[in-house]
Amino acid sequence: MFEWSEEQLMVQEAMRRFIEAEVVPNIDDLEHNGVPPFDIIRKMYATFGMDQMARDRFKKQLERKISGQEESAEERAERAGDGGAAAMTLIPIIELCRYCPGIVTSMGVSVGLAAGTIMKQGTPAQMERWGLDLLTAEKVGSWAITEPNSGSDALGGMTTTARRDGDGYILNGNKTWITNGPYADTIVLYAKLDDGSDTPIRNRQVLTFILEKGMEGLEQSKPFRKMGLNSSPTGELFLTDVRVGPEHLLGETEDERSGSGRDSAKGNFVTERAGLAAMSLGLIEQCLQLSIQYAKDRVLWGTPIGDFQLIQLKLAKMEVARLNVQNLVFRHIEMSAAGKSLSLAEASAMKLYSAQAASEVAMEAVQLMGGNGYTADYRVEQLARDAKVYQIYAGTDEIQITHIAKDLLRR
Amino acid sequence: MNVAVCVKQIPDPAAPPALDPGTKNLVRDGKLILDDSDAYGVEMALQLAEAAGGGEVTLVSMAPNGETSGLRTALAMGAAKAILVSDPALAGCDALGTAKVLAAALKRAEPDLILAATESSDGYTGTTPVQVAELMGLPSVTFAKKVSTEGGTVKVERQTEAGYDEVVSPLPAVVTVTAGVVEPRYPSFKGIMAAKSKPVETLTVADLGLDAASVGSAGARQEITNVAEAEARAAGEIVVDEGEGHLKVIEFLEQLKVI
Question: What ipTM was assigned to the predicted interfaces of this complex?
Fold first, then answer.
């Protein structure tokens, strides 16, 4: 594919209208006044029938889980093919990221990571109890892996523990940088099994739990003050002797053959990293569009600044980045349609390049606009602050590099 | 209840418009979009069919080059099917010629009610719907700000300068709706995907049994003789308020005879 199809353009157009009407008038509240994005996400789901689509998809997934059948090739193609994953998932992501990448982060963590993990590894009862409401955006989900002393070393450095207690567990620890943490109704949380053995904590088994807001001993912090991405609330979780029954253990088994906590966490990396390229594309497209307009409108020494070659260089580099990132996104869509998956190296390379490109383009857009670019009215300063996190979350640039290299050297 | 909606596909108003230097008509060669003013009629039709407990919404349109992009938007909103009349012989059609074509196409749809916008956003003649009604021998009610149907009648609140008139008309009828009549829905993603497989019947002038000489530039009784730039707006007057600004405003409004 080298351009969006007619149907995909219709989705894009509908999303743009929705964003103009529902997001743009509320940007200041979302970015500066601490208003969480969940009502807008719910409205978007209801407006475009995404909630009903999620219910229909849930029903099929549940039936497959109960019968133990794999998704057929036709079903996968229908779900992921042209107009499927591309139009339904990536286009809204791209369009929202022109204005509010935080909304996408919040939505992605709730629907993609939290619900996705439950749907993949949960029992049918867990899927019904916690998965569906997250998929329809009725409830808010978090995915809690990172801890204060274990950012990039999330699994090894994890110290949150789960101690067996009767047929249940007692959880203790502290999680941080948790997207939606302050508001989450449902939390997918990773913890090390404390079985009383001498195994060093680094090497202990990782278990995955589903927690609920209001559980005794679970405290959800207020949102952090961050450099950017303020439309996505981020916070800490504190667990003090949180007692959970066995139905809260994802998959209701410690048996690693049904999918370990480590696999569960890593399984999300590819999807998350590919999604970040789409987020970058939206942000880059918007910065480029605003920069072009500014270069035409801003007159200095009697001429539009677009006539100056140093400005032209910035625009040209932005366009190169836009084309490259768009090609990566289109390639991912084509591969999904063909039922193929990205390797970890490919997904990491895609994320590394896109995140750096987004950050660079946004900062250059600020530079191109000079003092105006530094003010909030011209919008690019917010996008520049937001873009920086692309290089940090979902695996830092440095982690992407090591993942790419390790994957290549393993071959 | 089956409702037909006359919809126009127009050049994207966001793109710079171009006039054909020879005919002085708007160039319509590129991609066309659903006229925003028609989205209200489509929404009203969908709501009326739904309220009546069933029936279909059919779109009727005339456009060059078999263009369906605008129709797909309305189909994605929920219309069931479309009739498109597209024929090189229709180039240069005036409002009456368009009405002849639409009336002939509408007869095939056999609707209980026909809706249209009060006027299009590119031509602004505002005459086509009533001409359609006349040609079809149907009553017409214009400027509807509220529409409901009951039994064999349509009840309309018709916007006037002073307020509104309550009008009841037997069906079938032609009703033109204003922009405020309803809030057009967004097409759902599922609706967008379904739109590509909904039927669009493309017809020519001959298919409708019309004489080619009575439509298009051949049958047009209207000729655009000249096109001129609109006069630039004059600069306004700035009054510095030194305590008596309100008197200046009153004086200005009195000059305009609005107070």
Answer: 0.84
Q: Is B235 contained in some domain?
A: no
Instruction: Please name every residue paired with B164 in a beta bridge, in sequence order, or none if there are none.
Output: B159
Contact list in B for residue A17 (CB cut-off 8 A) is 186
Query: How far apart are the CA of A106 and the nearest CA of chain B, in angstroms?
Result: 21
Tell me, yes or no, whether B243 lies in a domain.
no
Minimal Cα distance from B73: which residue of A? A10
Instruction: List the domain range (segments joined by +) for residue B64.
Output: 3-219
Domain count, chain B: 1
CATH code assigned at B72 = 3.40.50.620
CA distance A85 to A112: 13
Residue type present at position B256: L
pLDDT tens-digit readout, A249-290: 999 988 876 566 666 666 677 888 889 999 999 999 999 999
- Residue-wise pLDDT for A159-199, tens only, equals 999 999 999 999 999 999 999 999 999 999 999 999 888 88
Q: Which of B69, B73, B189 comes nearest A53 by C-beta?
A: B189
Q: Is the peptide bond before B172 cis (omega within 30 degrees of 0)?
A: yes
For residue A87, the chain B residues in CB contact (below 8 A) are 189, 192-193
- In the A/B pair of chains, how many CB contacts fall below 8 A? 40
Domains of chain A: 6-140 (1.10.540.10), 143-261 (2.40.110.10), 263-410 (1.20.140.10)
Q: What is the pTM of this model?
A: 0.88
Distance, in angstroms, between A9 CA and closest chain B CA? 10
Q: Is A272 a catalytic residue?
A: yes
Count the Cβ atoms, other than its own, within 10 Å of residue A398. Answer: 12
Which amino acid type is present at position A388?
K
- Type of residue found at A197: S
Give the per-residue SS3 of A283-306. HHHHHHHHHHHHHHHCEECCEEHH
Contact of A14 with chain B, judged by CB distance below 8 Å, is answered with yes
